Amino acid sequence: MALFLENEEQVQALFKAIPDIIIVKDSNGGWAWANQVAICMFQLQDVDYRGKSNFELAQYTWIKELLISSDVTDEQAWQEKKSFRFEKNFRAPDGTTQIFDILKVPTFYEDGSKKALIVIGRDITERKKVEEKLHLNAKILEASNDGIMITDAHNTIIYVNPAFTRLTGYGLEEVLGLNPSIISSGIQDDRFYHQMWEEIFSKGMWQGEIWNKRKSGELFLESLSINVIRNDQGKISHYVAVFRDITIREKLKKDVVLTGEIQRKFLPLDYESDWLEMKSIYKPLHYVSGDFFDYVFDKRNNRLILSLFDLMGHGLATALQISCLKVLFRQIATRELSLEEKMAWMNKEAIQYFTDETFAAAILVEVNPVERQLTYCSGGINHFIMATKKKTVVTAPGSFIGLMEDESYEQYMIDYQPGTQFYFLTDGLYENLIEEIDDHRNFDETFLYLREISNGPMNRDDASAICMNFK
Q1: What tens digit of pLDDT does each residue of 23-79 get?
Q2: How far is 377 from 381, CA to CA, in rounded Å?
Q3: Distance, CA of 128 to CA of 110 (rounded, Å)
Q4: CATH class of the structural domain 144-245
Q5: In 3-state terms, the chain is what percent helix, strand and coil (to 5)?
Q6: Is 294 within 8 Å of 410 (Cβ atoms)?
Q7: Best mean pLDDT range from 140-144, 336-340, 403-407
């Protein structure tokens, strides 16, 4: 059924109902008619605009440039003799940019002469913002190093990003319309997936680790998060899964854990005899520790020589450096040298195993049980605790090892009696002493107190100690 308008009043009524800008210009460029939207936008409410050109009307409005520049596109529409569409940006008085979609339709008489130019403008600023945001989101999805998969409410794949393809081997066209189970490894059982979906429905998300399978058949471990997307009515519309391959990370983690276990096996056992009780504390902050201690008996000279090290760092490189220090200590411990000479030798030899950014704190201790003398030499562990009737902090001067090749060190000697106690601590433990150690605590109580601190929430570093109680 044909729909037509019988007169000009109907035409104007229709134009007034349209929320777009509508302007009709005569063949000379003068405004013949404009709807209220256009009049308000160009601030022509009190102006007799009929017959006036863009240039003449520009003096009444704050968007002069828009009106004046319209002459160029008006002429272009007349010359091409067909509809001409384009977008136009202009700056509003408040500094914001508005964008209009403009359509110019030239009309002609039967003899080909100009009749009228119809101009229709629509504010598409908000639409452009939405498009820009969608475009940005799409770029983010494409640029993400994490694999992203989006499914509809029926868990049918509708999108995967390039990282998904790189991680699984499946392209978008291969998985579009399929269920995510296409990459299932079969390792997780039905119970696992049942619990996962229960959490997704109850909490709106799930996070965890899961084994999946690449297109090649290779299994890989991924860290996966699934989030529910709901529409305005609160109903589930989509699921978004984001994952990353953590297979190598987990392998490295296992290697680090194994390194920590081996490192712990290098530690000597606690010692007890008729003249000495010696206990140790060893608490890595993570898996691999930068702390280490060791002791040897020099049977020829009837001496106990022990060492405590605190390296800067906690990783695998630190574990190797610790091993080097252990070897160096074992090489030098029983040589006929003073303690300060042993420290100087270790410092010189250790430098080759350190980088410019690493160094170690150390202390060497030698015990003569016959003379009841304890000699110590500090290489950066500058405090320890001595307890007789009262517990006191002993300051032990000495520079770090591994910094300067020709560093010199000094040794000091303390006479002890049965009942004297010594506590040699790394910084991770010493700096967390929130109170002076109670003088009324016996050796076992003090040891338990220090161990409690090493396991406490305030600990932010490796924590180690050698605790000695002379009988």
Answers
A1: 999 999 999 999 999 998 888 999 999 999 999 998 888 778 788 888 999 999 999
A2: 9
A3: 39
A4: alpha beta
A5: 35, 35, 35
A6: no
A7: 336-340
DSSP bridge partners of 245: 222
* Burial of residue 336, with CB atoms counted within 10 A of its CB: 0-12 exposed, 13-18 middle, 19 or more buried: exposed
Give 440-453 pLDDT, tens digit per residue.
789 999 999 999 99
For residue 15, what pLDDT is reported? 66
pLDDT tens column, 325-334? 999 999 999 9
Per the rule left: phi > 0, alpha: psi between -120 and 50, beta: everything else, 94 is: alpha
Does the predicted TM-score (pTM) go above 0.85?
A: no
- 127 or 307: which carries more pLDDT confidence? 307
Q: Residue 283: beta bridge partners?
A: 463
Q: How distant is the alpha carbon of residue 3 from its chain centre?
A: 62
What is the pLDDT, as a whole number, of residue 93? 72
Q: What are phi and psi of 381, to 5 degrees?
A: -85, 100
Domain residue limits, the chain: 15-128, 144-245, 262-470
Mean per-residue pLDDT, 237-253: 92
- Domain 15-128 and domain 144-245, same fold? Reply is yes
**Does residue 95 sit in helix, strand or coil?**
coil
Best CATH choice for the domain 262-470 from the list 3.40.50.2300, 3.40.440.10, 3.40.30.10, 3.60.40.10: 3.60.40.10
Cβ contacts of 45 within 8 Å, gap of 6 or more: 39
> CA-to-CA distance for 239 and 157, rounded, in angstroms?
9
d(C-alpha 416, C-alpha 449), whole Å: 23
Question: Please, what's the b/e burial string for 363-401 (b: 16 or more CB within 10 A of its CB; e: otherwise)?
Answer: bbbbbbbeeeebbbbbbbbbbbbbbeeebeebebebbbb
What six digits make up the tokens of 116?
């009228």
| CB atoms closer than 10 angstroms to residue 160 | 25
Mean of pLDDT over the chain: 90
Model pLDDT for residues 176-220, shown as the tens digit of each residue: 999 999 999 999 999 999 999 999 999 999 999 999 999 999 999
Cβ(220)–Cβ(214) under 8 Å?
yes
The third-level CATH classification (topology) of the domain covering 15-128 is Beta-Lactamase (3.30.450)
